[in-house]
Amino acid sequence: MLFKHILFTIFILLFISGCFSQKVIFVEQKKKHYEVKTNIYEKPTQVVKTKKVVENNYTNIENQFLDILKIDKYASICGTDILSPNMDFEKSLILYTKNLANGCLKIKQSKDYNIYIQEVDEKNIIEQFRSNEYTIKQILEPYIPNHPEFLKMIKKLNDKNLSKQQKYILRINIERMKLLKNYKIKNFIQLNIPSYSFDFFENDKKSMSFGTIVGDLENKTPILSSKLKYFIVNPAWNIPDSIAKKTIIPRMLKDKNYLKKKHIEIHKNYKLTSQKYRQKDINWRKYLKKNVRHIPYKFIQLPYGSNGLGRVKFIFPNNYAVYMHDTIGTWRFKQNKQKIRAVSHGCVRLENPLALIKYLSTNYTKYSYKYVRKVYDSHKSRTISLSKPLAVHITYFTVTLDKNGKLNFHKDLYGYDKVQKLNFEL
User: Fold this and answer.
1) 5, 60, 404, 406: which has the highest count of C-beta atoms within 10 A?
2) 324-325 and 348-350: which strand pairing?
């Protein structure tokens, strides 16, 4: 017992210094001094059905937890509270789970950045831990981010070629992964803002990738999670009042044929069946005044080749009315510069929407791609609903992995790296 207390005292002094390797030394010493006579480490996924207590008074499941803490497998120690000389396994497991489920960032819900707090069922965790019928991995499983790059990013923390600042930014991005909404859906679409990219993840791999255009600094694309519900082929564009005031009205006042050339109609609301107006029926100049925000007339651009939305838009319900859509400005995808790629009013423009239509039609709807393509070529508007759920995550990862597993660092487009900080010293 005296040796044990000395060992714990040494650990505290070392751990406070903040060195990761010293945490490893502590747990290794603990494991060597209290040898567990079991093969549980060789088969970490097996279910432990009996509570095997050896001379050190530690059970198999407690030693499994020590193994996870030794390397901080899920990057969720986040400080010194979990490891302590008189470690309470149950309290430490709860704390570790909370860090895993909801991250270790100083961040609050904001106008443009949604975070999804996952409720941690403490009672259930304790019951599972005490029953000794579950492995630690099974207990933690509901709280582990299902993003296929989560564990890969954690391994990159050991990359000796990274600077201290790069490791800090990498860790911030790992914590952001914990804040994604967990829909329990394996396949999902990721729209990552800093890399201007669309990625379709299936069975833990990217099955489709191409470029995007995102919101500018005044009209940030919001960070959120939702589910893709349907897509509209040959959509009409309900032009927002802000765009009408800034662009449509000034141009139509200069050119009386502007609306006709752009296939834009004026209606009482955003329904083509509502009352229709002529340009000359209304005094438009009063709506250009700075103090006027609401316009009681709505501009709708009809389905057409020059439609601002392109030929298709993809709807995932959210409070911001943003969506993915086609674009007529395909030239923008040739460059990866902020002034070229961060120019939308918040919606995400896609480089290759036809490829997405084809895949969704074949795998996520009751229609064949042949039928959907026929509708597409007809220039008639049609809504196509998805037959099974597909998650959509708009993310803000300034560090990503390429197809070769190499880290790519991206420009902090909206400045979130500067305001979101780790709640512990790395």
Assistant:
1) 60
2) parallel
**One-letter amino acid of 290:** K
Residues 6+ apart with CB under 8 A from 32: none
Q: What are phi and psi of 360, to 5 degrees?
A: -65, -40
- Measured CA to CA in angstroms, residue 422 lies from 76, 106, 157, 158, 200 at distances of 12, 6, 15, 18, 29
Please name which of 104, 110, 53 lies closest in space to residue 81, comparing C-alpha atoms: 104
Domains of the chain by start residue, with CATH: 2-158 (no CATH), 180-234+307-395 (2.40.440.10), 237-301 (no CATH)
Write out the two tokens for 350: 């896609």
Q: Which long-range contacts (CB under 8 A, 24 or more apart) does 280-286 make?
A: 284/249, 284/252, 284/253, 285/253
Strand partners, 300: 238, 265
Per-residue CA distances from 50 to 31, 47, 85, 108 (Å): 20, 9, 27, 43
H-helix segments, 72-158: 89-102, 122-131, 136-140, 150-155
Q: Vertex 412, ends 407 and 416: CA angle to 5°?
A: 115
| Beta bridge partners of residue 106, listed in sequence order | 421
User: Which residues have C-beta within 8 Å of that of residue 129, sequence separation ≥ 6?
Assistant: 61, 89, 90, 93, 139
Q: Is the Cβ–Cβ distance between 187 and 203 less than 8 Å?
A: yes
Q: Which two tokens stand for residue 84?
A: 């302590």
The helices-and-strands tally (H runs, E runs) of the chain is 15, 19
Q: Going along 170-245, which residue ranges are E strands?
A: 188-192, 197-202, 205-215, 224-227, 230-233, 237-239
**pLDDT, tens digit (0-9, with 9 covering 90-100), for 86-130:** 789 999 999 999 999 999 999 888 899 999 999 999 999 999 999
d(CA 68, CA 70): 5
Distance in angstroms (rounded) separating the CA atoms of residues 394 and 324? 11
pLDDT in tens, 301-319: 998 777 888 899 999 999 9
Give the Cα separation of 141 and 129 in Å (integer). 13
Total residues found in the chain within this entry? 426
pTM of the predicted structure, to 2 decimals: 0.83
